[in-house]
Amino acid sequence: MGKQRSIAEQCDHVAKVANLKKEAAEIRIMLARIWEVKGSALMAIHNRTNALVHFLDIGLPDQAAIQHREIARLHLEREERGNAADSLRVVIKLSTDSGIREEAAAKITEITTEEAEIQSELGKKWADPWHAGHGHFSAHEGAKALPWDRKNRPGSDPVSPCR
After folding, report:
1. pTM assigned to the model
2. Domain map of the chain by residue range?
3. Mean pLDDT, to the nearest integer, of 3-23?
C-alpha cells in the first residue's frame, strides 16, 4: 500500500496545481494577445479557450467569463455572429457580476436583431421579380441555386458551368 498524504500535504498539492493552472492561463492570454496583433483571430480564440478552461478548473468562473467575452469579440471581428452569441450566452451563465451579465445580454440582443434584419433583407431580395425563375440547376441534384450562389447575382451569367 502506498503512503497516504496528510490533509495539509493534499492542500499544498492542490495549491501548487492551482497556481500552475493560473500561470498557464495567464500565459495563454499573453499568447492570445500576440496572435491578435499578428492578425490571427483563430489562434487568439484557441488560446483564450485554453485559458478559460484553466480558470474553470481552478474555480475562477469570473475570469473564465472575461475570456468568453473576449472570444465573442473575436468572433464578431470574424463576422461569426452565431459563435459570438454562443460565447456571450456562456458569459451570462458563468458571471456572477450583474454588470457583465447585462452587457452580454444586451450584446446578444443586438446580434440577434442584426441577424433578423439580414435575414429579412435576404428574404426581400430573393422575392423580387428579377430572381424569380432565374435559378440554375445543379448537375447532381437538379435543385435551384441557393441565395448565396455567386452565379445567380444580378449582372452575372446565370448559366451553370456544369452543362
Report:
1. 0.59
2. 7-127, 128-163
3. 81
